[in-house]
Design a protein that fits this description.
The structure holds 2 protein chains of 2 kinds. By secondary structure, chain A is mainly α. Chain A has a domain of about 120 residues: Cytochrome Bc1 Complex, Chain D, domain 2 (Orthogonal Bundle), CATH 1.10.760. Helix content of chain A is about 60%, strand content about 0%. Chain A contains 8 helices and no strands. In chain A, α3 crosses α6, α3 crosses α7 and α5 packs across α6. The radius of gyration of chain A is 23 Å and the shape is elongated. The C terminus of chain A is likely disordered. Chain B is mostly helical. In chain B, about 85% of the residues lie in helices and about 0% in strands. The longest helix of chain B has about 35 residues. Classes of the chains: A mainly alpha, B mainly alpha. At the A-B interface, loops of A face α2 of B.
């Protein structure tokens, strides 16, 4: 092979390889080869990549400073009520058995009573914005920051709680979830988007 | 008259049996259903293991799952179930 031919070969290889790879990827997508069923776990490399994308995205976006005192008992109790209402079905709670939805979700909703490696700012960001394709909703659509920080305050506390302490904490809150939502609307927070409906 | 009362009492007892017994039986059946050695249960446990942090518990769970799969391939469902339980215990740790 002459020098010029070899150069052309390398140039064609460099230019052609990405096109071939993109073609193969397009074929795989179009043919529906990848199994997206929730009862078929990702292969380990795919799982690792998705986990890495999630973790890096949360770390890069969660830059907000913590503006409240997360150890305030009233805030923790308020967070417990909201957690019981909005989160426990998927993330479970101290003393709670696995629910049907927790068995079926993929990726699994982490059991938050086991603790979390996320910082408070990261937890707030996840609760507020949710995570695509995981079943985690963006609670910021319907809840204001004040209520979401209450949840974060509770999340810092949940690993220390027994089942009885958890129940006692939920009962100790001065308001129900519904009352909290009404109060939020009065102070000009978000609404549930049901205004104007018949 | 007595016969009518007896019939009513019997019907009431039967109705009570149906309503008092059914939910508990369903709950037990459901718990058992999760433990069965079948593909969907095995996949569910695998998804649980995948979500675990690296460590001793995960290592044990992975090992027990492999053994459960081997037993299932050999059609030894009792041994499979035992290893599946062990894997679940490791997950819960």
């Amino acid at each position: 092979m002459s020098h010029t031919t070899r150069r052309w070969f390398i140039a064609a290889l460099l230019a052609g390889t990405p096109m071939v790879l993109m073609g193969v990827a397009a074929l795989v997508v179009y043919a529906g080869i990848y199994d997206i069923a929730a009862d078929e776990p990702h292969s380990q490399p795919v799982f690792w990549v998705m986990q890495m994308v999630r973790d890096r995205s949360i770390a890069a976006h969660a830059t907000e400073a913590v503006p409240v005192d997360l150890s305030e008992p009233k805030r923790i109790a308020s967070g417990a009520v909201q957690y019981e209402e909005m989160c426990s079905t998927c993330h479970l709670a101290p003393g709670m058995k696995r629910t049907e939805i927790s068995w079926g979700l993929y990726p699994r909703a982490p059991e938050l009573r086991r603790g979390s490696q996320l910082t408070p700012a990261e937890q707030f960001w996840v609760v507020k914005h949710g995570i695509k394709m995981t079943g985690m909703p963006s609670w910021g659509v319907t809840h204001d920051d004040e209520l979401l920080w209450d949840i974060v305050a509770f999340l810092r506390k949940i690993p220390e709680l027994t089942a009885d302490e958890y129940q006692a904490l939920v009962r100790s809150a001065s308001k129900t979830h519904e009352e909290m939502m009404q109060e939020m609307e009065m102070r000009g927070g978000h609404d549930h988007g049901d205004h104007g409906q018949q | 008259m007595h016969i009518l009362i007896r019939v009513r009492v019997t019907i009431a007892f039967l109705v009570w049996l149906v309503f008092a017994g059914a939910p508990r039986d369903l709950a037990i059946a459901h718990e058992g259903h999760q433990m069965e050695c079948k593909k969907t249960s095995m996949q569910a446990i695998k998804a649980d293991i995948q979500a675990m942090n690296d460590g001793e518990a995960k290592r044990v769970a992975v090992k027990e799952m492999k053994m459960a799969e081997e037993m299932m391939d050999k059609n030894d469902m009792n041994a499979c179930k035992t290893h599946l339980h062990n894997a679940m215990d490791a997950i819960d740790k």
